[in-house]
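[Discussion] Sanity-checking designs against the backbone

I'm trying to build intuition for which residues belong where. Below is a structure token string of 64 positions. I'd appreciate it if someone posts a full sequence so I can compare it with mine line by line.
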């Protein structure tokens, strides 16, 4: 396990812009900044991640 810092300013920008919880935006921010795919089964997070240009894994059709 690795602990990473979160750019809270950017996370709050994402949260405000997409009307989501800051908690969820922190995951999106870290994925964006570290250029890593994000695994989630939250379809709204997948939608927002794609808008942000992130590589998203999961969703209802993931077969996991």
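Best answer:
Here's mine. Compare freely.
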């Amino acid at each position: 396990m690795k602990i990473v810092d979160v750019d809270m300013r950017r996370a709050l920008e994402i949260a405000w812009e997409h009307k989501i919880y800051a908690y969820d935006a922190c995951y999106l921010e870290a994925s964006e900044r570290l250029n890593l795919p994000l695994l989630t089964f939250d379809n709204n997070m997948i939608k927002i991640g794609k808008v942000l240009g992130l590589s998203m894994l999961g969703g209802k059709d993931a077969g996991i």
